[in-house]
Design brief:
Elements lengths: L1 H17 L1 H4 L24 E4 L5 H5 L3 E7 L5 E6 L8 E4 L12 H4 L5 E6 L16 E2 L8 E3 L8 E4 L5 E2 L10 E9 L5 E6 L6 E5 L4 E6 L2 E4 L11 E7 L4 E5 L2 E7 L11 E4 L4 E10 L5 H15 L2
Antiparallel strand pairs: 1-19, 2-3, 2-5, 3-4, 5-6, 7-8, 8-19, 9-18, 10-15, 10-19, 11-12, 11-18, 12-13, 13-14, 15-16, 16-17
Length: 313
């Protein structure tokens, strides 16, 4: 028995020493969270994904891009890329302007003593482009209209702070059918009016939070679907999945489906995925978009469960 025990222990040590990919999942979690997998690791096929954490283990292990940011103090720009260990949250600077002297820093070090803003939030899913070969990245070319990085939100190395009059948008995208799913994770400040976490170009279909609905809500063809108890409390993070599927439309917040069988859905004409704000402050973590024949209840539950595990709410 002792020989067997020593053999197993030696084998485990050898695996940890020789195959970082086999144990890096242990590090895939923000503070106080049991997050062990990205959305892309849960068997749901997403068309687009953007976020502070990696889409899946493979994207993190490959050192994929998450953001391009600019530092206010000297206007140096850098990509934020995953550090190649498979950690879903371990971002470092890369491809920095000014000769690359700022490469290899964690975001809080790079931004210490100044303000950093996202210029681009990269679409991590790969595959489908927005228009032609143009990637479906969120961008904002005007500095005054950019969000900021907030290192004190407590849910990950940083959150994207959404403030009054700021927005980011993707290039135009034409979905293949009238069915789509919008999903987002964020937190709204209760003292302000509303924030659109993810919407199409006409504001017809939106995942949003507002004082008028007492918490998170959605719009389907302009009809408001309110999210009241048990998901009304704010100054807290929530996850929402809005599946537009005609008469089978469903809106789920934090594992609770608040509306089903609501007619409506996105048209197959051009839409724009857009984060926008009113007079508000909020904190955005991630969003996804699915252009497909719809998500069943199992897939919606997998999305919400994964996000609740990772963001610990």
């Amino acid at each position: 028995m002792k020989k067997i025990t020593r053999f197993v222990a030696a084998a485990l040590v050898a695996i940890c020493l020789t195959s970082p990919a086999s144990w890096a999942w242990l590090l895939q979690r923000p503070p106080s969270s049991p997050c062990l997998a990205g959305l892309g690791d849960r068997g749901v096929t997403y068309t687009f994904y953007w976020g502070v954490r990696a889409y899946d283990f493979a994207y993190a292990l490959a050192g994929g891009q998450a953001f391009n940011i600019i530092r206010a103090s000297d206007s140096v720009t850098c990509d934020l890329v995953y550090n190649g260990t498979g950690n879903l949250f371990a971002l470092v600077t890369a491809s920095c302007s000014g000769g690359g002297g700022a490469n290899g820093q964690i975001p809080s070090t790079f931004c210490n003593g100044t303000t950093c803003k996202p210029v681009t939030i990269y679409q991590q899913r790969g595959g489908t482009a927005c228009t032609g070969s143009t990637p479906c990245n969120f961008t904002q070319g005007t500095d005054a209209s950019r969000f900021t990085l907030d290192f004190s939100c407590g849910k990950s190395p940083f959150c994207v702070k959404v403030t009054t009059g700021k927005s980011m948008a993707t290039p135009s995208y034409t979905p293949p059918s009238a069915v789509a799913t919008l999903n987002a994770v964020g937190q709204r400040n209760t003292s302000v009016s509303f924030v659109d976490w993810l919407r199409d170009v006409g504001l017809n279909n939106t995942v949003w939070a507002a004082t008028t609905t007492g918490g998170w809500a959605a719009s389907v063809n302009g009809q408001t679907l309110a999210c009241n108890s048990p998901c009304a409390p704010e100054t807290a993070f929530h996850a929402a999945v809005l599946t537009l599927d005609g008469a089978n439309t469903a809106y789920t917040v934090d594992n609770t489906t608040v509306t089903v069988n609501r007619a409506g859905g996105t048209s197959a004409s051009t839409i724009k995925i857009d984060m926008s704000t009113g007079t508000t402050v909020g904190w955005w973590m991630e969003a996804s978009y699915i252009a497909s024949t719809g998500q069943d209840a199992t897939a919606r539950a997998a999305t919400i469960t994964n996000q609740r595990e990772c963001w610990a709410f």
